[in-house]
Amino acid sequence: MIEIYDLEELNVVIDNKVGTVKKKLVSCDGSFYVVSENTLLKETLIFRSDPIGKVDNYLEVGGGRGLTIEEILADFKGHLFNW
Fold first, then answer.
1. Residue-wise pLDDT tens for the chain (83 aa)?
2. Is 17 exposed, middle or buried (0-12, 13-18, 19+ CB in 10 A)?
3. pTM listed for this prediction
């Protein structure tokens, strides 16, 4: 079962361009993940987190360039890397 919770949304500025970082907390099979979309870089990455969305290690465990947060959440397990 997958549960999705809203996290903060931040504005970012890179090279005088403004974008947004959208974040969701995902609970999946007893583990927690933060899904983070950077609209300026056009990438969405998945990181392991604790139950409140704190990421200790920013080694990505899924996601990629050209993906939106909606696409990742629609097939969450399919976007996790196989270790």
1. 899 999 989 999 988 999 999 999 999 999 999 999 999 999 999 999 999 999 999 999 999 999 999 999 999 999 999 86
2. exposed
3. 0.93
